[in-house]
Amino acid sequence: MTELQQTDLQQLAERYLAVWNETDPAARRKLVDEVWAEDGSYTDPLAAVTGREGVDALIGAAQAQFPGLEFTLGPVDAHHDIARFTWNLGPAGGEALVVGFDVLVAGPDGRIASVYGFLDRVPGA
Hints:
It is built from 3 helices and 6 strands, in the order ααββαββββ. It is an alpha+beta fold. Strands 2-1-6-5-4-3 form a 6-stranded mixed sheet. Strand 3 and strand 4 form a beta hairpin. Helix 1 packs antiparallel against helix 2. The radius of gyration is 14 Å and the shape is globular.
């Protein structure tokens, strides 16, 4: 695949957050397999995992820690095969409890090769 376009990276960022919002474990794992490269990685201040199994387990743990909350996507800025965006985590239609900033790198197959996350606002911080 050639370099991804802005719209492709926008859609990949949207699908990335859809994975984080999918609470059915089997459906979430199916999305992880579709969206993430087999050896994809995720790194933030609290976690570092590699591979679809690790990504899926991390997302499941985050959902258990923040039940009933959902992620929303801010504007996506992208170039080459890299996208950066802000996200919010909070109750549907409510104020965000957690705010973060992620940098997503797409692999040659258009799946997520890596994500580097930053936490801008967390509860109790």
